[in-house]
């Protein structure tokens, strides 16, 4: 009997298969564990989902002052979820359920609980779409479903989903892109290609880049490998792909343009290590973390008779290309935007190997025993070679055992299909392949992800205790919030190394962690002010190095510190305390908006110390263009200190630490400086190639990355603030270091305290997402109004109803010219080029729809 609704049955089968593929994670969920990574999953994926959902459900789509010091989330989080189709659909469903009171909370814990179910549904659609694409290419339903299982249930899907969930969306769009290409070649219909290009570019620009490269490779090969007799001519095909590719890009402009701007406005130090052309260390037949080629694929790949099928030949060729690219770190760098090699594109290998198996299943009826024996011999030779090359091969690992069992099982089933060529045996073989994929997926989850990746530790306890979301800290935050009436104040606090703690614990903080951040803020931290963050790493900023001037300048009104920590910023007094922590309040607060006339230029301060730059920002305003002379320089007191070696030899800038720890002491020669802070600046490089280290200066500790770490900032000019002391103790672990350009500056805070005495003339401050309004009475007749809004393209301002120029001020923030008297100031933010991009998207969509509709009318369909 023919099933009336085959697609419904197919999707239901895909849903069941997807659930089976998640068996381990479902079991974990029942026990209160979550399908999220302990590092980026918990530190980025869950907080960003929480932040964006709260924004979107409240009607704010563009900006948030709760992300770091403030950021255009539509642009900067486009790498993650802000334009993710899966997330947008999920958010709509969650909003509906929340409106019906089915869901009561959408905190981080909610998104952690939902992760496995979102993944199951996504994978079901991946399986369904892929099976339909294979079927369109002329493969029977059973074989197409089998090939789709090998694609969707590959280890990389689960690796992507757990560690960087948005990566897994790429699994959806690759089959659609291939379908679009095939529709053009076979039917000269570009509609699906246009749709796939547009949705891929809208969803995530980073994986769109990878998918576009993969699609370009696919198109290039297909131009010379026709699959049917009446395909579109090459020249016309190229023209069609070019025109509709541009139209797809145009449709995506509303999302793609702001995303690319954010990427270009990011700062990440260039990868400086040598990249090999070839590296054969990864074992893709047994133990690869990225892609393990199924045994059945290797058997099929070595059967010459299968190559009579054009489709099999095509998939086999793509698999070969994929293998060659996989073993080239240069290719991995190319797919990662010419940065550090990252193996994130290998889902393409899973797709083409699944396609090859699906196409091969169609031809097993003509397979002979002689061919199978030859294929088995080649496969055994390949596996033996892989074992010999892999110096770290573990014969007792689950992957080695799994492959060792699956290969003979596949050979026996193929032999049975040759000996008794019945349709039932083909179905049994297909069931075996799918079952093997399910078993492999769950073994991969249990061992490679849960154990090796420490995901088994991610549970409710982790997400509701110290190190992530401490109840003790929550109570302190509630005390702070209860007594505050300011529209904006910031709290310096971060759980462990989780820079997005403010999002999780719902306060405005001084830290952020994202692959894309505002370049101006990163420069502010890394270069302009040399703010030490306690931990060197790219893609993040944190704290203010306990520097009181910066706390006051950026509304850092509170700091939470562990009891006994001596690094309390100057001018901070204890407010309240709990068992393990103390809350300190800043007594030298500066307003969110303040005016200034004394202007300095960044160029004029280029050779000045960070302390001089702080004073310039306190006394006036630092502008990107021309400005007045530099403020009075702060004296360098280095000559007043005598250098003494401690378990080390220090000669001509080379520091050899001979003890377990050692370094130098800088001892003051004359009268002590006791009221204020010392700023200790120096250039520090580790001579060891691959060893990170801890640097301590008096009671302050900070960690530095190894020279070969891909997360190294290459910022070696450091400025460390410590409370005033007669002796400065610089300590490092045993090793060789370059320690040069030593300088010591004394900060008595007269400038800060004088500025803190001034009253604020700002009133009626309102911050509503991407809109900031206030009234400012410029009684001092100052020239500029400076606000602590991070500068980025997209901000527009008006003063008394008239457009005003938004200036980049104090290295990373905004300012506007103002007039004497009352100034009604309004700032509004829209993603960069949003208006133009929206118009391009609308026009491109209309052109695309008109062409498709017009073509259908012409064809009479």
UniProtKB/TrEMBL annotation:
Keywords: Membrane, Transmembrane, Transmembrane helix
Membrane-spanning segments: 77-97, 109-129, 135-154, 166-185, 237-264, 284-307, 314-335, 347-365, 372-389, 395-416, 428-446, 833-854
InterPro entries: Uncharacterised_YfhO (IPR018580)
The keyword Transmembrane helix is annotated on this UniProt entry: yes
Name used for this protein in its record: Putative membrane protein YfhO
